[in-house]
Write a structure and sequence with these properties.
Heat Shock Protein 90
């Protein structure tokens, strides 16, 4: 009897504790998220106002305050989240509004004057959360005061703007409502499962089995691609030997057929190589020898290699070298794979025109741009471009070979080495890939 009571007590404790802990965790997460999101919005508001302040430097120095007022109205018309934009200056020890948007106040409130005084004295931006109105709807916003400095680093004016958080609040409130609904559903599910004698263990075992199957499939892919690599290389070698008349002369007809076989073997070999790389990436078996790498020299060698291929298509490949070699903190072999893939793709997908490659320094990073005047791509294609096995399928690309794995693989390499890759493109006008890697 005592044992049964203990079991009942244990069951009731679990049934009460788990939903309670879930509710507490959800509430805590909501509060933390709200605070973090609010902090992020404040940072963005500071950045927006800093940009506005910097853009008015020349007009302030030239006392073109009427022009600034017109610009503020134009900005607010385009960006409805920005309200109450104005410019304040200190004159003879007092503070005056010298430029303002139509919805901004005509005189300084005590709070705004104090905010201005702090900016002048401390030379730092000051932000505060205030109540405001956007499209006749009451909301909140971050009111930011940013100093505008002259050439001697003296504050010559203070730029004010209020960044409304209407849409952000709506998104947050919607997310919080959904969180509470999900929490209630979760509690109901948990209680039902607990009352059914804690059969969640079965689901955990099923999940473990699924992971085991996935690992088995990954291992099979790794072994299969590894075993295929050697035969395809041997076949390719023998075909090349026959075509080079190593054994005996062959007719043009046979040579043509062997050429097709060699191309298809090369495609198969590339697929095997890409699958092997995918398997290594997924299993975390890729080794990175991080060192100082002369990225400029690597790109120069690749460009020289691909120039004859581009010339056969009537294309020009130009590499605008920087004034001095740019060294990145990366793996030399991976860097070569990355830019070989991108330059090769640029040539493949450019029927006519040019491929332009440039490098520049941006803070602690090296930015490399590969731009072509080729086919370009749609917005939908750009969204899926870095997915595994994804290739753009249309009438223009049907004869272009590829596995659809190259971009996924180099993206993993770039991110693993602390970099990032971006793409900008427009159909019929070309594509630009931008690779950012940390500078050594």
């Amino acid at each position: 009897m005592k044992k049964e009571k203990l079991e009942i007590f244990y069951s009731v404790t679990i049934i009460i504790s788990i939903p309670l802990l879930l509710a507490v965790n959800t509430i805590y997460l909501i509060r933390t998220t709200r605070s973090a999101y609010n902090s992020e919005l404040r940072t963005k508001a500071d950045v927006v106002n800093a940009v506005l302040a910097e853009s008015f430097r020349a007009e302030i120095e030239g006392d073109s305050f009427t022009k600034i007022s017109s610009q503020l109205n134009a900005i607010q018309k385009q960006q409805t989240d920005i309200t109450q934009a104005m410019l304040v200056q200190r004159q003879n020890g007092n503070y005056f509004i010298v430029s303002r948007a139509n919805d901004a106040p005509t005189t300084l409130s005590p709070g705004t004057e104090m905010q201005t005084k702090i900016v002048y004295e401390r030379k730092v931006p000051v932000s505060k959360l205030i109540n405001t109105t956007v499209n006749r709807q009451a909301t909140q916003g971050w009111n930011v005061a940013t100093p505008v400095f002259d050439a001697n680093n003296n504050v010559m004016a203070v730029s004010f703007s209020t960044i409304a958080i209407t849409r952000a609040q709506a998104i947050i409130n919607k997310a919080f409502t959904q969180s509470f609904v999900i929490m209630l559903i979760s509690i109901v599910v948990i209680v039902v499962l607990l009352f059914r004698h804690f059969r969640l263990v079965g689901y955990i075992q099923l999940l473990a089995r699924q992971r085991e199957i996935n690992q088995t499939m990954s291992d099979f892919l790794s072994v299969a691609t590894h075993e295929l690599k050697a035969p395809t290389s041997i076949i390719k070698g023998y075909i090349a030997n026959v075509m080079d008349d190593t054994t005996s002369p062959i007719s043009d007809g046979i040579r043509e057929q062997l050429q097709v076989a060699l191309l298809q073997t090369e495609r198969l070999n590339n697929l095997v190589k890409d699958l092997l790389n995918v398997s290594r990436v997924e299993q975390g078996r890729v080794q990175y020898n991080i060192e100082s790498v002369d990225s400029t020299n690597i790109i120069d060698v690749i460009v020289q290699t691909f120039t004859p291929i581009a010339n056969e298509k009537g294309l020009t490949v130009s590499f605008t070298k920087p004034a001095q070699p740019l060294f990145v903190k990366a793996d030399a072999g991976r860097v070569q794979e990355i830019f070989t893939n991108l330059i090769d793709n640029a040539i493949k997908y450019t029927p006519e025109g040019s491929v332009f490659i440039t490098q520049s320094i941006n803070g602690p990073t090296i930015i490399t741009s590969i731009r072509d005047t080729g086919l370009g791509m749609s917005t939908e294609n750009r969204k899926r471009l870095f997915q595994r096995f994804y290739r753009i399928q249309n009438e223009q690309t049907k004869n272009i070979s590829g596995t659809g794995l190259g971009l996924w693989i180099i993206k993993q390499y770039i991110e693993a080495m602390g970099g990032k890759i971006n793409v900008a493109s427009k159909e019929g006008e070309g594509t630009e890939f931008t690779v950012t890697l940390p500078m050594m």
